[in-house]
Design goal:
221 residues, alpha+beta, 2 domains, seven-stranded mixed β-sheet, 7 strands
């Protein structure tokens, strides 16, 4: 498109000269990595990917994610991340982390795969979100503990997780999908409203070291 531009490429002789240099570089990197056990190599690669993402432009939106069921190690990670994130973003204390641990512990201990389900959002091997559906009664299912990591927000993961809950509850014949949240969680409330949930009632309460307004939302299926 511009006469001032020139395409530059190696000649056959240049490619011959470059080959041993390229192989030497490859071998040098391989020797460095061989010093590390496999888990440490994986950490290194993830760290390099993080650098690329932070310095690149518009790369985050191109990275795909997947939804999968709960796996060993997820429970502890979700408890840790939710406790940390809600402390950072809303100033909630450790009693919220304790509540998450209680809810997830009960979910695992009494899990009924016929009526209950979990979805873990994973991106480049890292958990970036999750949500759970538990059986409250024959007619009512409860959506619990929706969260998305800050690094993955804006990609539609929260909306997708809620849609999965709704589809599952309908397929199982539940009549109502309900949830409890607090009014300060504005992003989550927007997702619930967009999905058709209606505010059933709300009440002021003191929890997690803060004065809050708890809300119950219902979706008639």
């Amino acid at each position: 498109a511009d006469a001032r531009r020139s395409s530059i490429a190696l000649t056959p002789a240049g490619r011959v000269a470059f080959a041993p240099l390229n192989q030497g570089s490859h071998d040098q990197v391989a020797a460095l990595l061989d010093r590390l056990p496999a888990p440490e190599q994986e950490r290194l690669v993830k760290a390099m990917q993080t650098v690329q993402h932070l310095l690149g432009e518009g790369t985050e939106a191109k990275i795909p994610y997947m939804l999968r069921p709960l796996q060993v190690g997820d429970i502890g990670w979700i408890i840790h991340r939710q406790g940390l994130l809600y402390a950072q973003e809303y100033g909630w204390d450790e009693t919220y982390e304790a509540l998450v641990a209680e809810i997830l512990g009960a979910f695992v201990k009494s899990f009924d795969p016929k009526w209950e389900r979990s979805w873990i959002a994973e991106r480049e091997g890292e958990v970036v979100g999750s949500v759970f559906v538990v059986r409250q009664s024959d007619a009512v299912a409860k959506l619990r503990l929706l969260y998305v990591e800050p690094s993955a927000r804006g990609l539609g993961i929260g909306r997708r997780l809620v849609e999965e809950c709704i589809g599952f509850a309908r397929a199982k014949g539940y009549k109502t999908l309900t949830l409890w949240t607090n009014d300060v969680l504005t992003s989550a409330r927007r997702i619930y409203e967009a999905a058709g949930f209606k505010l059933a009632d709300e009440e002021r309460h003191h929890a997690f070291g803060k004065d809050l307004v708890g809300q119950n939302w219902n979706l008639e299926l």
